[in-house]
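ARCHIVE RECORD
Type: protein–small molecule complex
Small molecule: alpha-L-arabinofuranose
Source of inputs: curated submission
Record status: active
Notes field left blank by submitter.
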Amino acid sequence: GLRPAYANMPKLKEKDTYKIGFAQTESNNPWRLQQTKSMQDEAKKRGWQLVYTDAAGSAAKQVADVRSMIAQKVDVILLAPREERPLIPAVMEAKKAGIPLFLIDRGVDPSLAKGGEDYVAFIGSDFVEEGRLAAEALVKAVDGKAKIIELVGTVGSSPANDRAKGFADYIKDHPGMQVIASQSGDFARDKGRQVFETLYQAHPEATALYSHNDEMTMGAIAAMEAAGKVPGKDLIIASIDGTKDAAQALQDGKVVVVVECNPNFGPAAFDAVVKYGKGEAVAPRLVNKDRVFTKENIAAYLPEAY
Ligand code: AHR
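STRUCTURE (tokenized, with ligand):
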């Protein structure tokens, strides 16, 4: 029969203030810094204690960070898992220790851990949809014809897997859209620059770039300009996030579309914790609504870009 929701999940006592752990994956990117700031602002606003760790791009360190939060007996853990599989032990150990855990922005392998059973909930964007929206805008911009270089995010992370999938699924029905090279730039600016430079040297026939995040996009733009090419003309660019640099590049005509990935998780995450503490049901998947930025609406967004 049906199991009641959260039957096997750690409970959370209702309190006025909580001690919250936030396990961040890395901080080499304005998106990550904005996400951390959103958590810190929200903790301050509510007078909750925030235990913050930065895994500095290492899944192994992030597992150790969660273990240290368990040892410190935080009330709740908010985890932004770097990769889908290596963080499974952290999720399971928190559950075993009786500490409710929420996945923030990235997911873990759904065949190994489930919302409402192993962790309370996933709160974040629909990355497949982001990839689909990027593809839709790019197809429109290039009239259905492009030779595309794809800069992939961190290998094994849910945004890299899902943004690749959403994009590929959409362009399948557009035979003029061809991904001619695809490689990871690890969601990082300098890696994106290096990888793009190499791929473009090997594929000078490329006419478009699909980049899984704005930092890699900014790196690729630097590589294009160093090669004497004009971003926005020689190569049409689709990107994801909504950083200030990418919003400015869109405004300047270098990028044709930025699909938003909203990093401001503080309010929704802390609200979900309060709800769970009251014993109310929290949906196992809370999806942020993301916008699509083009030259039509970018000016209005720029002031809130981070
Ligand atoms: O998980 C969200 C992604 O991770 C963002 O697109 C990226 O900038 C970050 O590193």
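CURATOR ANNOTATION: The first strand starts at residue 19 and ends at 24.
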